[in-house]
Design goal:
With 338 residues, this protein is an alpha/beta fold. It has a domain at 3-207 and 273-300: Alpha-Beta Barrel (TIM Barrel), CATH 3.20.20.100. 35% of the residues lie in helices and 14% in strands. It has an eight-stranded parallel β-barrel with strand order 3-4-5-6-7-8-9-10, surrounded by six helices. Strands 1-2 form a two-stranded antiparallel sheet. Helix 3 runs parallel beside helix 4 (129-141). Residues 16-314 form the NADP-dependent oxidoreductase domain. Residues 319-338 are annotated as: Disordered. Keywords: NADP, Oxidoreductase. Belongs to the shaker potassium channel beta subunit family. This is Aldo/keto reductase family protein.
Length: 338
């Protein structure tokens, strides 16, 4: 396993991170979680990413139990705050109340006294950014988080947040965007802004919800039990990619992967890890052997010719509009009351 510093911080993370957004869902659960976490640790992964909202808060509990007994100092545990975790009007967003209460609840569920990175899962237009960043400063100064990060913020939002973080003397070190060879939205604005600010990328869905593994073939006959045939939290992201043109182009990369002795998944992960600013890629799994195989991508270096082949094959079907980032967060100042 390869390791890198996250942004300009001193925090060192594994190039492949384990994420349990979809690993711990209603169809899998605790046994799968334990097996996948063990496979991640055996592969040298030390970085674990979750969020308070995953599986209605059960994902944090499951990850905490799976990591119990592992030397805490040898791990980097990340979680997030923003989405609703209860029925009340203050059970969501980035208010001081919700951040401070959510931080305590996340620590309880994870079974730890601190997280290494506490992330704003989305941008909250209904709360003054100054209040949000001051609340994160409270969490850091209380020793409940070492660093802070954001996820799916626009370049302008990141710049404003970073300026406040500097004033408050707290370390905003990361951004977590969706990013893959099929979803290149952050390249135009977000990643350049982050590089200027010394903020590293923790990318999610680097395999485009499994499309870049090649398991979905043209014709619409999806593998039984795959994300395309389920109703879990990731299925809605697949719609735009389950088209014959996209799937044929992905399948066309198989000779490239075969020539390098890689799976298509390893090829896609190596591609995203080679992109400027990307520090770590978050992977999930439905089986532990997927973690074992995909983690090998951390040691793969693609030459320029291979990267160019991948780009040329997928560019016509890749999403690149930077405006897509803003769509992932609420856009109305009164969304909380809707």
């Amino acid at each position: 396993m390869d390791f890198r510093h996250l942004g300009r911080s001193g925090l060192i993370v594994s190039r492949i991170a384990y994420g349990n957004w979809l690993t711990h869902d209603a169809s899998r659960g605790e046994e799968t979680e334990r097996a996948c976490v063990r496979a991640a640790l055996d592969a040298g992964i030390t970085t674990f990413d979750t969020a308070d909202v995953y599986a209605d808060t059960r994902a944090e509990e499951s990850l905490g139990r799976a990591l119990k007994g592992v030397r805490r100092e040898g791990l980097e545990i990340f979680t997030k705050v923003f989405a609703p975790t209860g029925p009340g009007r203050n059970d969501l967003g980035l208010s001081r109340k919700h951040i401070r209460e959510s931080a305590d609840n996340s620590l309880r569920r994870l079974g730890t006294d601190h997280v290494d990175l506490y992330q704003a899962h989305r941008f909250d237009p209904s709360t003054p950014l100054e209040e949000t960043m001051e609340a994160f400063a409270d969490v850091v100064h209380a020793g409940k988080a070492h660093y802070i990060g954001v996820s799916e913020w626009t370049a302008d939002q990141i710049r404003r947040g970073a300026a406040l973080a500097r004033e408050l003397r707290i370390p905003l070190i990361s951004n977590q965007p969706q990013y893959s060879a099929l979803w290149r939205v952050p390249e135009a604005e977000v990643i350049p802004a982050c590089q200027e600010l010394g903020i590293g990328q923790i990318v999610w869905s680097p395999l485009a919800q499994g499309v870049l593994t090649g398991k979905y073939e043209p014709g619409g006959q999806w593998p039984a039990g795959s994300r395309a045939t389920s109703e879990n939290d990731g299925s809605e992201l697949l719609g735009g990619w389950l088209k014959d043109d996209v799937l044929r182009r992905v399948a066309g990369l198989r000779p490239v992967a075969d020539g390098l002795g890689l799976s298509l998944a390893q090829l896609a992960l190596a591609w995203v890890l080679a992109r400027p600013g990307v520090v770590t890629a978050v992977i999930g799994a439905s089986r532990p052997e997927q973690i074992t195989d995909n983690a090998k991508a951390a040691d793969v270096t693609l030459d320029e010719e291979t990267v160019a082949l991948i780009d040329a094959a997928l560019a016509p079907v890749a999403t690149t509009d930077p405006g897509e980032t803003a769509k992932s967060s609420p856009g109305s100042s009164d969304w909380r009351l809707a």
